[in-house]
């Protein structure tokens, strides 16, 4: 399942992460998907705030740690997703959580 890392409807362009855990870690072979109402196939990717590569596809598998955003022509830029290369990480499901929700944490090495 794909899960947005920000509340649905907050922006028109969303960056989805698979597997759906945050923070994302490089060794999970993370796939990012840019989803929005803008023009399909007109996706611009940014890594650490800079235009990144020539990848105009809507999704790709991450091979470098960093902070990613995407832009769909006509619907704007997504909120950022950070992919870490840490050896120890505490993860939560990549979905909107509210106070008093029960949540499963994962401590991974």
TrEMBL record:
GO terms for cellular component: external side of plasma membrane. Coiled coil: none annotated. One of its GO terms (biological process) is immune response. PROSITE patterns: IG_LIKE. Gene3D superfamilies: Immunoglobulins. Keywords: Disulfide bond, Signal. The keyword Signal applies. One of its GO terms (molecular function) is transmembrane signaling receptor activity. The lineage of its organism: Eukaryota, Metazoa, Chordata, Craniata, Vertebrata. It comes from the Eukaryota. Residues 7-82 form the Ig-like domain. The keyword Electron transport does not apply. Pfam families: Ig_2 (PF13895). This is FCGR3 protein.
